[in-house]
Amino acid sequence: MDLGFRGEVAALYRRYRRGYPPPVLDALVAAFTLTRDDVVVDLGCGTGQLAVPLAGRVRGVVGVDPEPDMLAEARTAAGDLPNATWVVGSDADVPALRAVLGTGSVGAVTIGQALHWMDRERLFAELRTLVRPGGGVAVVTNGTPLWQQGSGWSRALGAFLRDHLGLGGDRACGTDEESQRQYAATLSAAGYDVTATTVEYTAPLTADAIAGGVLSALPVDRLPADRAAFTAALENAVAPHAPFAEDVRVAVLAGRRG
Ligand SMILES: C[S@@+](CC[C@H](N)C(=O)[O-])C[C@H]1O[C@@H](n2cnc3c(N)ncnc32)[C@H](O)[C@@H]1O
């Protein structure tokens, strides 16, 4: 499936998407007792929002993503990090990863904001033999989409996107409660012990960051042709609600292998 995470969208993603603050990394380390001896696989790593900071906590990180442009941006974001590597692949490649890395060789497999595109039942079953005992799978979501939050600027943004792009407000990308319940139930049915942690914080936002965040969420073939005009109109639509702040709620579902 072509999700359009290519070209300019990959660059926008690296520039504008939020990373994960230290308490999220602390939660992952605590859930799986990760140490400097562990390797972590970040599946659907995108431009490295989770993989790059995780590399500072463990022996090594393997970032896996089907989109070469996203991986190229991740490599740039990683700079001279010596212990992160970037591999083209998808959730269908877990058996090959296990063959290469070894059974029970991995402390954790993290999936940040990407599980909604994966074959979850098959994936969770296959990951049980890739992770070591006490390790596991973490499903991480990084806040509600910008146009679905309760604030004034978010509602204005939602209305603008409906008018200009015909975008409905229903795509929550796994951040909604029903998806979270389903993910937890699927992990549990696959034999993992599941715990849920949330990290909440409020961060200031600029109009440029709102526009960039929106553009980074579009498939590359849906980017508006006149980017400057689109961005100016979007910024105009939200301007009455300045200054902007975003309440971010990061959810970490940790499935621990006993
Ligand atoms: C929204 S981005 C998330 C990037 C990053 N993990 C984060 O938390 O910001 C989703 C990523 O999942 C990747 N992806 C889509 N389908 C996938 C699949 N079946 N297996 C692995 N990755 C996939 C996309 O290419 C994209 O880079």
UniProtKB/TrEMBL annotation:
InterPro entries per UniProt: Diverse_substrate_MTase, Methyltransf_25, SAM-dependent_MTases_sf
Could you list the residue ranges forming a coiled coil in this record?
A: none
Q: What keywords is this UniProt entry annotated with?
A: Methyltransferase, Transferase
Task: Give every Methyltransferase domain span.
Answer: 40-135
Q: Does the keyword Metal-binding apply?
A: no
Q: What is any Pfam family matched here? A: Methyltransf_25
Q: Does the keyword Protein biosynthesis apply?
A: no
Please name the GO terms of the biological process aspect recorded for this protein, alphabetically.
methylation
Superkingdom of this entry's organism? Answer: Bacteria
Enumerate the GO terms in the molecular function aspect: methyltransferase activity
Q: What is this protein called?
A: SAM-dependent methyltransferase
The species this protein was found in: Saccharothrix longispora
Q: What is the lineage of its organism?
A: Bacteria, Bacillati, Actinomycetota, Actinomycetes, Pseudonocardiales
